[in-house]
TrEMBL record:
Superkingdom assignment: Archaea
Short name of one Pfam family: AsnC_trans_reg
Descriptive protein name: Transcriptional regulator, AsnC family
Organism placement in taxonomy: Archaea, Methanobacteriati, Methanobacteriota, Stenosarchaea group, Methanomicrobia
InterPro entries: Dimeric_a/b-barrel, Tscrpt_reg_AsnC/Lrp_C
Stretches assigned to the Transcription regulator AsnC/Lrp ligand binding domain: 7-72
Length: 76
């Protein structure tokens, strides 16, 4: 299992639309709206790095998403 933490920026004013898209993506476990440099923190849980890559690609396809940064976590 691979845990991904993706920091997401969205088009200003499109936070609700972006949230509604993100919560529908398979593999995303939690979406948190945050304040500061990023608009959302997205927690995902997938089978491997290639699945995480595909999930992040899916997030980036949204017209409401302007940028992402992903941190990969693994169990010790």
């Amino acid at each position: 299992m691979v845990i991904g933490v993706t920091l997401v920026n969205v088009v200003p004013g499109q936070e609700k639309a972006a949230y509604n898209e993100l919560v529908k993506v398979k593999g995303i476990k939690d979406v948190y709206h945050v304040f500061g440099e990023y608009d959302f923190v997205v927690i995902s849980n997938v089978e491997g790095l290639s699945a995480l890559n595909k999930l992040v690609d899916t997030i980036r396809e949204s017209e409401n998403i302007t940028a992402t940064q992903t941190i990969v976590g693994a169990e010790l």
